[in-house]
Amino acid sequence: MASKKQQRDEQDRTSQIFGALAHPIRLRIVSELARGPMNVSEIMEALEVEQTAVSKHLAVLKSARIVCCACAGRCRIYTLISKRAVRAALAAGEKLLAAACEKDSSAESVGRRFRA
Fold first, then answer.
1. What SS3 state is found at 67?
2. Alpha-carbon torsion 53, 20, 98, 109, what sign?
3. Cβ atoms 18, 89 nearer than 8 A
4. Of 12-16, 29-33, 110-114, where does the model show the most confidence?
5. Between β-strands 67-72 and 38-39, what pairing exists: parallel, antiparallel or unpaired?
6. CATH top-level class of 4-115
7. Is the whole model's pTM more than 0.85, yes or no?
8. What is the distance between the alpha carbons of residues 101 and 116, in angstroms, rounded to a whole number?
């Protein structure tokens, strides 16, 4: 069983990933990179987005340790650091949503009993 500190660290990491994925363009970038490494020009072409926007969103994803880049001559090649980490964050989010939905339905049924 994980310690409270480990649980907190995992929740912090999950929150960081959700924050980074909280924009549609970043989600699209991650989706493209899930297919394989790409440079900025390839991402721009795939998403039909300006270079400045792609670079800005890649910086957010890099800061959140979702993507990394390697230099290949004058190009920077971006790759997902860990597909598993992104999947784990999404799974954790699903658990949180399920728990929240259960609490909401419990609160609704309690509320109905008191209103009746």
1. strand
2. negative
3. yes
4. 29-33
5. unpaired
6. mainly alpha
7. no
8. 22
Contacts for 19 with CB less than 8 Å, ≥ 6 apart: 64
CA angle (20, 6, 102) in 5-degree steps: 70
pLDDT of residue 83: 78
Give the rounded percent of residues in the chain with a pLDDT score beyond 90. 41
Coil, strand or helix: which one is 31? helix
Residue carrying the six token digits 């929240």:
100
pLDDT at 114: 44
Q: 71-95 pLDDT, tens per residue?
A: 989 889 999 998 787 777 777 777 7
Question: How big is the chain by its Cα radius of gyration, in Å?
Answer: 19
